[in-house]
Amino acid sequence: MDLEDIQDHGLIEFGLAATRNHMAGFEKVFALLRRHPRAGQLREEFGQGIRAFSHAPHRILYRLQADDVLIVRVLHTAMRSRFASGKH
């Protein structure tokens, strides 16, 4: 749901071209994380085993699960998360 909200907000605030570019950037970051799952900084304040990787102005929160990268949240860097690891 985070990505849908980001896209909807981007379309309203920045237009189609900028939003497409930003969303394509997410795909590039996700591909990078698949190849280099430990690229993100460990951020235990968001929950045990949570890593963060920036795609300005957003922070991608994820965890490693077996051989997979599980995207947990995508937050604007201005937001303060009340992330509850037990719910994700």
From TrEMBL:
Keyword Transferase among UniProt keywords: no
One Pfam annotation reads: ParE_toxin
Can you tell which superkingdom this protein's organism belongs to?
Bacteria
Record InterPro entries: RelE/ParE_toxin, RelE/ParE_toxin_dom_sf, TA_system_RelE-like_toxin
The entry's keywords: Toxin-antitoxin system
Gene3D superfamilies assigned: RelE-like
Family assignment? Belongs to the RelE toxin family.
The record ties this protein, via PANTHER family, to:
TOXIN PARE1, TOXIN PARE1-RELATED
Q: What is this protein called?
A: Toxin ParE1/3/4
Native organism is Novosphingobium chloroacetimidivorans
